[in-house]
Amino acid sequence: MLDNKLWLVYITSPMQAKKRNIKLVIEYDGTNYRGWQSQSGNHVTVQETIMDAIKQITGERVILYGAGRTDSGVHAIGQTASFYSRTKIPPERLRAALNSNLPKDISIRSVEYMKSSFSAQFQVKSKTYCYTILNTEFPSALMRNFSYHVSKVRLDTKKMKQAARHLVGTYDFRSFASASRKKENWVRKIYSITIARDKGIIKIVVRGNGFLYNMVRNIVGTLILAGKGSMKPEAIKEILKLKDRRKAGPNVPPQGLCLMKVEY
């Protein structure tokens, strides 16, 4: 993928000036995919599958720029992506054509022509993720690919909310990032975290200006510790201060996570 400076050169090149900049909003069930990002080898990814469909329709091998990468098993309702194409197919017809050429677990929700300067990747202002926990005695056959089953203990959502309050704001989130990734800038801003229970289903919705690798799943794992009573809610403040991944909770499974919305 291009970095931000190279993107500016790319969009102003004579080749791109003759093309339309097309924005997609995408919904997908990530169960059968090796995440969003195209990879070497024979791994099936969401990005590669959509690019194949675009080629079938337009005859062009485009580069599809996504708002963010989702891991294997992670889902999306509002993933956003953009690409340049010479096609003159109207947006509604292009959406219908793409959906006809895509598998049933990927759906294009909208197609829109944008200004040439628009970038689905570099102009993101906020992302919203939802993590679903099934807090019941027995697992669900229907929800197994869309939730994380936590049994044996009823999670205390009041304590989870108390812990979540300490995460809202601008912080160095190194303690909640994958320990295998090295970054120069670990600072992110979380605008809000809401936690709601409906019988045995708990939904944790996190909105922020950006997220580190595995950050949301690590946050949820830590909030679950607070909900179980094995960690005091105020311990979040110390975890943030220590900037040590080992001090936070476990990385919960991917299937409970869904990218809900990307704002520009």
Describe this structure in words.
The chain has 264 residues and is an alpha+beta fold. It has two domains: 111 residues, Pseudouridine synthase I, catalytic domain, N-terminal subdomain (Alpha-Beta Plaits); 138 residues, 2-Layer Sandwich (Alpha-Beta Plaits). It contains seven helices and ten strands. Strands 1, 2, 3, 4, 5, 6, 7, 8, 9 and 10 form a ten-stranded mixed sheet that branches. Strand 2 and strand 3 form a beta hairpin. The model has no long low-confidence stretch (mean pLDDT 94).
> What's the architecture of the largest domain, going by CATH?
2-Layer Sandwich
Q: Count the helices. How many?
A: 7
Q: How would you sum up the global shape?
A: globular
User: What would you give as the CATH superfamily of the largest domain?
Assistant: Pseudouridine synthase I, catalytic domain, C-terminal subdomain
**Gyration radius, rounded:** 20 Å
Largest sheet: 10 strands, mixed
- Calculate the terminal CA-CA distance, rounded to whole Å: 19 Å
